[in-house]
Design goal:
The chain is mainly α. The chain has one domain. Helix content is about 35%, strand content about 5%. A two-stranded parallel ribbon has the order 1-2.
């Protein structure tokens, strides 16, 4: 089986060479290639029922029912410095966090919609601001 995967991988490399850098990304691409190790975080009100970010689709939950989870989202133990320290101590060079998922809920404060972490939750806090302000990253 390993030989099959190796042959497939070799064929894929030959068939699909890396795309040339374009003018929008060429200055950032070397950094990305060098960074190699980072953290991707998906976090939102779908953490309340703890059944995955596709709960609306997978369980056919009506949007009006799903939106009620915002009133229960209260992650008082969130600690931006701790998250940053864990990433940095592990050797991570970047963190990518979902600030607005397909459910439309914003994990940052915005005046464009009240459906955001500051306006629609009892927590009334902007975790993205905390993460951006953390000095641990540097």
């Amino acid at each position: 089986m390993a030989a099959v995967f190796q042959a497939a991988a070799a064929g894929a490399r030959a068939e699909f060479p890396p795309a040339a850098d374009d003018s929008l990304t060429s200055s950032r691409t070397p950094w990305w290639r060098d960074a190699k190790f980072g953290m991707f975080i998906h976090w939102g009100i779908y953490a309340v029922p703890a059944r995955g970010e596709w709960i609306i689709n997978n369980t056919h939950t009506p949007v009006a029912e799903y939106e009620k989870f915002a009133a229960q989202f209260n992650p008082v133990k969130f600690d931006a410095r701790q998250w940053a320290k864990v990433a940095k101590d592990a050797g991570m060079k970047f963190v990518v966090i979902t600030t607005k998922h397909h459910d439309g809920f914003s994990m940052f404060h915005t005046n464009l919609t009240p459906y955001n972490v500051v306006s629609s939750t009892p927590w009334r806090h902007d975790p993205m601001k905390d993460l951006a302000d953390t000095k641990t990253w540097s």
